Q: What sequence folds into this?
């Protein structure tokens, strides 16, 4: 009597079939998330003059506020990436989006230097881990070949021209279209 289950599936290997459309959602979500994160970082510098004037801050004070974000982001990037490995990238990305949405709003409610530095530090804590968990989501939601192409394209959109690191990529504009070929 023959076994109706293919040998590839009996060995514990994943089932081979038509890929789902989830990969498209993962790519769109990741690109939108990266663009919003970039806009978030740039927009605070665009209004720093208004913030200084409203709160009576010096150039040095605003530098401390920007530095608080950078320090928190650097300190929590790896632990939040590890958290994504432990509990899943999707849960961590939801936490990232909710946390940074809250602290984007909280930035508008600051009343002095200490509150600004505190909110910016917590903003950095919340935003940390976005890119390691996007990479994990790419790994889970796309094929190995597509992961390299889409990651290169996504990083090109966010200001890091690494599309040339993908061995099969000729330009970042063709990466996404070729990733799903």
A:
């Amino acid at each position: 009597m023959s076994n109706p289950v293919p040998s590839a599936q009996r060995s514990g290997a994943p089932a081979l079939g038509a890929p789902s459309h989830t990969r498209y959602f993962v790519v769109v979500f990741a690109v939108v998330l990266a663009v919003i994160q970039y806009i978030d970082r740039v927009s605070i510098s665009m209004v720093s003059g208004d913030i200084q004037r409203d709160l009576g801050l010096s150039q040095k004070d605003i530098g401390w506020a920007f530095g608080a974000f950078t320090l928190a982001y650097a300190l929590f990037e790896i632990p939040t990436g590890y958290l994504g490995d432990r509990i899943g990238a999707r849960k961590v990305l939801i936490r990232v989006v909710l946390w940074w949405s809250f602290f984007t709003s909280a930035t508008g409610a600051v009343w002095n230097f200490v509150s600004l530095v505190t909110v910016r530090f917590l903003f950095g804590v919340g935003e940390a881990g976005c890119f390691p968990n996007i990479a994990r989501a790419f790994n889970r939601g796309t094929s190995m070949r597509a992961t390299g192409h889409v990651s290169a394209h996504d990083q090109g959109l966010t200001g890091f021209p690494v599309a040339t690191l993908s061995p099969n990529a000729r330009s970042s504009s063709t990466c996404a279209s070729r990733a799903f070929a």
Q: What stands out?
A: Residues 21-141 form one domain. The radius of gyration is 21 Å.
